[in-house]
Amino acid sequence: MNLLDQTVLVTGANRGLGRAVAQTLRAAGARVIATARTAEGLAELRDAGFDARPLEAADAISRAALVADLPPLDGLVNNAGVALKGFDVGMARRTLAVNLRAPVALARGATLRPGARVVMVSSGMGELAGFGPEARQRIHAAGTVETVLALADAWLQAVERGTDLQLGWPRSAYSVSKAMLNAATRALARELGPAARVNAVCPGWVRTDMGGAAAPRDLAEGAASILWGLSVAPDGPTGGFFRDGAPIAF
Ligand SMILES: NC(=O)c1ccc[n+]([C@@H]2O[C@H](COP(=O)([O-])OP(=O)(O)OC[C@H]3O[C@@H](n4cnc5c(N)ncnc54)[C@H](OP(=O)(O)O)[C@@H]3O)[C@@H](O)[C@H]2O)c1
């Protein structure tokens, strides 16, 4: 993708991988719309010369306000994400809102130019290897965005009732949210059809606030794995899950 004069939205761009992706895109000549959720984050983005917009990803009203005021996009990088501590239904709901519902809402709500690339920043933690057979089967069977979102609701109910482990879900809201994001990516690729390329990418384990100091990858390596999703050819893959441009297990 020639990024010169392309308009690309990057969420969670005030720090970490989102910031590195936004900087690289701008250096390549893209018009970058960068989101943050706090006044400090927005001020910092503006000071750095970005077109900064507010987004609290957990809030449907904030998501709608963002998409209502966007120009048509050539690229969308759904990067904002959380890995919250603990495990209960409240944190599970919030994790899904940020890591699943927000990326889906932005991909569906934004006006995408023909040939646009949508990149869902997922994680190897969303691979289904750690899921029991029933949960795995239900994720594989979720073929539309609606069925993925309904499955997310069903999982929250199971967490509330305490039956989630029995049904084969791991006790990691982060893993469940990223597995569901991968399933939603596959469904969105079908929904959007040939007009867009929609792929989930894993940046690898990267030294950020989320990844921690022990992670083997630096920001540039992680950002490159994300940016690959914007370089997919117009007839290239869509609906897949990749790290460093290579397909990975889902
Ligand atoms: N680092 C890794 O090893 C790794 C590995 C696999 C996948 N990932 C994925 O890569 C993406 C970026 O991770 P990172 O390591 O750069 O994390 P990070 O350093 O913790 O940064 C997260 C970004 O997301 C934003 N964010 C969090 N909650 C938000 C919300 N409710 N609304 C709007 N923005 C919100 C943060 O904004 P605030 O500053 O306001 O909190 C920040 O800009 C995430 O999707 C993560 O799951 C990371």
What would you say about this model in short?
The protein is an alpha/beta fold and 250 residues long. It has a domain at 7-83 and 97-124 and 180-247: 3-Layer(aba) Sandwich (Rossmann fold). The protein is 42% helix and 17% strand.
How far apart are the first and last residues' alpha carbons, in Å? 26 Å
Q: Largest beta sheet: what is the strand line-up?
A: 3-2-1-4-5-6-7-8
Provide the CATH architecture of the domain at 7-83 and 97-124 and 180-247.
3-Layer(aba) Sandwich
How many beta-strand segments?
Answer: 8
Q: Assembly type of the shown chains?
A: single chain
Chemical compounds bound to the protein: NADP nicotinamide-adenine-dinucleotide phosphate
Contiguous runs where pLDDT drops below 50 for at least 5 residues: none
CA-based shape:
globular
Mean of the pLDDT scores?
97
Could you name the CATH topology of the domain at 7-83 and 97-124 and 180-247? Rossmann fold
Task: Output the CATH homologous superfamily of the domain at 7-83 and 97-124 and 180-247.
Answer: NAD(P)-binding Rossmann-like Domain
Distinctive features:
alpha/beta, binds NADP nicotinamide-adenine-dinucleotide phosphate, 250 residues, globular, 8 helices, Rossmann fold
